[in-house]
Amino acid sequence: MPFRDFVENAHGPDLESAQATPVIVLTGFLGAGKTTLVNRILSEDHGIRVAVLVNDLGEVNSDSDLIVGVESGTVSLANGCVCCEVRDDLIGAIDTVLNSDGQMDAIVLEASGVAEPMGIACTFTSPSYRGRIRLDGIVAVVDAERLPAQAEDPATRDLVFAQIGFSDMVILNKIDLADHDQVDRVRRFVLDRLPAIRIISTVRADVLYRFLIGSGSTDPDDQRWLTDDSHHHSSHGDFTSWVYRRDAAILDSCLVQ
After folding, report:
1. What is the pLDDT of residues 40-84, one digit of tens each?
2. How far, in Å, CA of 250 to CA of 189, rounded?
3. Contact, 121 vs 7, CB < 8 A?
4. Which of 10, 51, 149, 214 could form a disulfide bond with 104, CB atoms 3.0-4.6 angstroms apart?
5. Does the reported pTM lie above 0.85?
6. Are 89 and 123 in contact (CB under 8 A)?
7. 248: exposed, middle or buried (C-beta count within 10 Å: 0-12, 13-18, 19+)?
């Protein structure tokens, strides 16, 4: 079950969520393709003003022709998007975006490759941001070639399951580097554990931004998931059951706020 559902069950629905700025969290290991996806979001002509929060501004390759301003770790682009460096202060970066002159239509956070989405989601669901931002979806970017080894390695196994297990959608990236049988095995690996999760198979994280906004939507009539997209694969079920065990408590850090 996606982490956002845990939070709603704990805190109740946000009655002001319709007016709040949607937040999308991108998780995934180093090299999975998160930064490539961020660059696409910043340069794509989608007509949406997106604030992207990154750990290292130097890794973002914004076209110099699009840059209209650089100030205090924030790059402003001609299409209305901005890119902000987190600098170990996620709350500060969020406040910078929310208090800026230009109202953003959405916020995208590129999480660190070793970050668990639970802790990040707790920040975005803090009561102090209630009515201002809302957790719109958690998207896991997965390397189709490397996932099997990462899921079997004791050093990375728990993080793999945490990143995928708390996500609303999985971007199965770099399918061009893995043979068809391996891609099918990786897809089955995910769907065996999360039968109802949406999977988009991509090369170089080529995902239309409209698939990311509202990625946590449970609306069965959402037209995006009914289209015949060669890069899109989804599986839906009426019920989902998945067990994730860990020694530490899952919700304590959010419930105490």
Report:
1. 888 888 889 999 999 888 777 655 566 777 877 788 888 889 999
2. 23
3. yes
4. 51
5. no
6. no
7. exposed
